């Protein structure tokens, strides 16, 4: 019988036995060597690109009746690493996240090893206190009054954090909406800029407001919300007997990295009794540096803030927070008091059972990777990181200005998103008419295709309003240096000429 039990546990190791231990060590070794180190060396490719059809033929995706051997599983692990994009590579500057922070990585691994669900203190005591500690420190850094008084939660991404803002704003003004939803309610309008993240509209749709009730305000030439236009639209909303519910301002827009004027928005929110939310998912990282904190002046007047440490602060995916100065609003707004989790007659202080503040039930301990990383570097280390990436942004901006064939979209970018066109020699003498812009629009996609197929770097491009496709370099990896900045521009130039 013992033998049979042993055989079974070997076949289905939901508990890692000694045989599995060796396999785990081998896998970890492989991950550290291939995904973390050699895969992110400058001499390695950022991606080994294959079309979906090719990838299907190169990789055994199919699930089978039989169990695979450890040898085969290790081969599959290696192939998964080989064919995946190395987002920790210094030349991955494609998205608003990158880098592989070793402390965040080990934090993420420990979280996965312990596999908690942070809804009650009884199953996640350490992580519950850690969340409270880090969220209160973040609120202090935001500058909420009374030493960061308020509340906060970790969310599955910045989009959901922005959704929490909408739901808190609605509850704050219309507490009965918790029972009645939008039934019989006055039409409520959410204001945001045309350059804000798409999640504001998506979550408004998801929550039943409807996309027509998200009023997108024009941005100025720097990508900031036009405050006069915002005020006019609020007035129009009031004249139409609608309720101006909230403004979702942005600190660090997705494409241009623009920071809305938060002081002026706070004045308007005060005047019209509206909830002020700041989506600082991207730009929030600048708060860590006294030198760049000024970009977000006025954020301390907001009712709520989204801030994603997995972006500018390089915690591993995902690590997103929602912070508010209203102490009890999340619990009041979201609680349903499920008696199978949040029993009030537990033997400990049940205010530590924080799960009912969330709309999620099961929830990862995203706090740990960030807390561990912060411990490892200190607040000063995070500040130095921010100062460094901003100095790289300044360097590449000046290089672009000085280089023939490169043109900035914003002459003076505020954040570490640097947007620019590469104008190939064949277009340089052309008149700037519609034919020129049509041709220029096709340049970035062509260069991007060439760079992905070569695996030499990854940078995104996009059009914006009436502007043709342009590149957007995003800098947030601490290891970046001036040679890397030169490499990016040289590579784009080389690919663009070929
Ligand atoms: N959360 C926005 C990310 C999109 C981007 O990297 O462009």
TrEMBL record:
Keywords: Decarboxylase, Lyase, Pyridoxal phosphate. The keyword Lyase applies. The keyword Repressor does not apply. It comes from the Eukaryota. Its cofactor is pyridoxal 5'-phosphate. Belongs to the group II decarboxylase family. This is Cysteine sulfinic acid decarboxylase. It comes from Musca domestica. The chain holds residues 89 to 586 of 587 of the full protein.
